[in-house]
């Protein structure tokens, strides 16, 4: 089974989708004899709490923003390495990826910061896994944008779509194949079916 990465700009329904896919695959695993995937939860929230960062650091302090993204990248590597070691089924579904902090570093800090992260051991350890996996981008511009007080919120639609474009551009530049769940696919069951189909197609 290939690993699955659910990624994209902030507030596009990634965690909701991962949780729903997890529930659906519980049933599928029983019926079709699949081994259940390990679920790698979003590491950024834990880093924000444990390292005493706030979402304001991302947009207001380039130095703090870069430090945060470097911590997130390292945490993602640890999470995927641990999942590989502990998970007997040898596949997992990631809520985000190692690419996410690099995209945010590029957008909020600059090209040089992102370039340095792209040469880091952490990213080099993650990139190969993404290239072998199933990468699904949740498109920005959806209708359920809600401020939960923790995650970074786009200041306007233009910024939101710029981050969305930054994800696509970096995926293309790094040669990582991906597909997109349209912002117009608002029904959660349909979004889950999209992920399930991607997994099934990868088995053929």
Automatic annotation (TrEMBL):
Entry-linked Gene3D superfamilies: P-loop containing nucleotide triphosphate hydrolases
Taxonomic superkingdom: Eukaryota
Domain NadR/Ttd14 AAA: 4-190
Matches recorded under Pfam families: AAA_28
InterPro entries: NadR/Ttd14_AAA_dom, P-loop_NTPase
Name by which UniProt lists this protein: NadR/Ttd14 AAA domain-containing protein
Organism lineage: Eukaryota, Fungi, Dikarya, Ascomycota, Pezizomycotina
